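User: Here's a protein and a ligand (zinc ion). What would the complex look like?
Assistant: Let me lay out the input and then the predicted complex.
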Amino acid sequence: MKALIWKKGGKIELAEKPDPKIKKQTDAIIKVTRSSICTSDLHIIHGAVPRAVEGKALGHEFVGIVEKAGNCVKNIKEGDRVAVNCITYCGECWFCERNYINNCQNGGWELGCTIDGAHAEYARIPYADKGLTKIPDNISDDDALFVGDILSSGYFGAELCEIKQNDTITVIGAGPVGLCAMLCARLMGAGKIIAIDINEERLKFAKELQIADIIINPQAQNTEIAVKSHTSQRGADGVIEAAGTNESFQTAWKIARPNSIVAIVAMYEENQTLPLPQMYGKNLIFKTGGVDAIHCKKLLELISERKLSTNFLITANYKFDEIIEAYKEFDTNKNTHFKIAITY
Ligand SMILES: NC(=O)c1ccc[n+]([C@@H]2O[C@H](COP(=O)([O-])OP(=O)(O)OC[C@H]3O[C@@H](n4cnc5c(N)ncnc54)[C@H](O)[C@@H]3O)[C@@H](O)[C@H]2O)c1
Ligand SMILES: [Zn+2]
Ligand SMILES: [Zn+2]
């Protein structure tokens, strides 16, 4: 099969690899039908993910059709159209039993990182009963494409905030993850959503699609004052940080009202410091995390019931044969694309 592999120094190439085979009877083989490029794929190519294994097929955001299922796979069968969880998890270890699947002792982020991933014609999915969810018939591959990664991450961020009815939730970063977090926060009962980004177009987009009620550009106004002006001077009832810069990290604790939760879903390239003397008395709860993507079935149901939609995130389409061009485009013009979809 053809697979997009990466090499040290940032080179990517379409290479020929043997078709994947069932290794354990809990595995399934997927024929990939649609995938997307994630910021994390770029991190790997840039050499910023030390655990990533050179020469593996990239990609971990995808849907496909079950080509073959091992004898122990019960929940899905050959021919099923499935959404794939970006996290591989056994479902049985101490962490999985408590739904902390990101820390699965037998899995974690493997696809497209330590084992071959989605930017190939076929992919082997370990623990297929956990990692694959059947896609309802009334939704398309594009509808389901982001369920296993960024939509789960947005949901996770909103969930971390423990949102109560009519809360004002502020999301820093109106990129794909931030927008997904806003959609999910709304579903969880947020009364007002404030989007913060330095990209004016992304902010306008969030407002026009009514994903956010209020937009704030820190380069145009004082964010802390602006958030207070929309929250009776209290600050936000919950903050989801999905931008990942030194500035956005500081903004997160500043705009949170005392006794609220700051949920960090962004990945930083540098250490961050909390100025505890300045923060004294804010009594904040900070939560950090790599996504525990345990809600794929529920998210697919919400999409199927038309209560949730993420198709608008697809801003370009490429064929699998053109995937190198797609990577170049995403890497160099990242801010003009939310997500690039690859068709096989
Ligand atoms: N926790 C997880 O499991 C998980 C999963 C997926 C992605 N992520 C992380 O989530 C983050 C967001 O992902 P994405 O794909 O949406 O990325 P993105 O780069 O498309 O979006 C980030 C947004 O933040 C904005 N931004 C930059 N600096 C800012 C500032 N100072 N104030 C306000 N906004 C600012 C950018 O303009 C951009 O729109 C990334 O760090 C990514 O690695 C985490
Ligand atoms: Zn990803
Ligand atoms: Zn486990």
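Summary: The first helix runs from residue 39 to 45.
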